[in-house]
Amino acid sequence: MSDQTGPTSGAEGAPPPQMPACVRHPDRPTGLRCTRCHRPACPECLRDASVGQHCVDCVAEAKRTTREPVTVAGARVSTTPVVVPALIGLNVLVYVVTAALAGNLMQNTGSGFFQSWTLVPMYTADGDWWRILTSGFLHIGAVHLLMNMLALWVLGRDLEVVFGWLRFIAVYLLSLLGGSAAVFLMGDMAQPVAGASGAVYGLMGAIAVAAVRLKLNLRPILVVIAVNVIISVTIPGISLLGHLGGIVVGALTSAALLYAPAKRRTTWQLTALLGVFVLIAALFVTRDLQLADLVCRMTANGRACGVLG
């Protein structure tokens, strides 16, 4: 029997096929491909997708072209409130400071710090303009603080999710100023007013408008608002004017945010919020001139100040 040797033929003698290289790493042969663009990619450059795996380039392109979901107010979708806890923390901090200065944890109104921050229309007209804002972060006793912070948490956490943190701050601060404006315009000239109630009632007005916009059941919200208004009327020492001013401005600013046209929504919202702020400022200035004239007439310098009348 002869031994036949020689070169083999067919598939057994063919060299193994060379694998393509990853498009991002040419030095890495790979048998994997992106299921979207079909280019070869190494495991480091692939990301799991609903169907197969996508390369990092396709993932980045999808992020650029996919429209990010937003709420009805145009805010990014989020489930974690940030501003509400910060506001609660700020109010608690201010209370602790005033209580420490007064030397009494339950009765904090005796500190000079508290007295210089409360809203007193007569002093505000005389130049203490910061009072229209700072009074909204003061509270008369721990119970007052607890009630307002509880309401802020219950109402604010859902509204912040709908509005987004920046729009929520605008609604809160404008409602606070709206409550101060009502007190400044129609309140007792010498009566000090303090508390976050104006801003909290603004959130009540805002959540009512949001319920209408989202087609939710409005009855429970209206019941809560009605009960709080009745409490404001029947219990002495509560500023009804501040509450009503806050709820009106809160509803107005919420409507401006929630009913703005989708096209150029941000521009419409900014314009509306600026308009509300200008209106409140104009009311303050008009009333300030009247009160300043009255203050001047009540002082020894009244004769010299008579030009304001």
The multimeric state of the shown protein is: single chain
Strand content: under 5%
Overall shape: it is elongated
Radius of gyration over C-alpha positions, nearest whole angstrom: 32 Å
Distance between the termini: 135 Å
| Mean pLDDT reading | 84
The helix/strand series, from N terminus to C terminus, equals EEHHHHHHHHHHHH
Helix amount, in percent?
Answer: 55-70%
Specify the biggest β-sheet. 2 strands, antiparallel
- Count of separate DSSP helical elements: 12
Q: Structural class, judged by helices and strands?
A: mainly alpha
Short description:
With 309 residues, the chain is an all-alpha fold.
Write out key terms for the chains shown:
single chain; 309 residues; mainly alpha; 2 strands; 58% helix; disordered C terminus
SSE layout and pairing:
Blueprint: E1 46-48, E2 53-55, H1 56-65, H2 83-102, H3 112-117, H4 121-125, H5 131-134, H6 142-163, H7 165-186, H8 197-213, H9 219-234, H10 240-258, H11 265-298, H12 302-305
Antiparallel strand pairs: 1-2
Helix pairs in contact: 2-6, 6-7, 6-8, 7-8, 7-10, 7-11, 8-10, 10-11
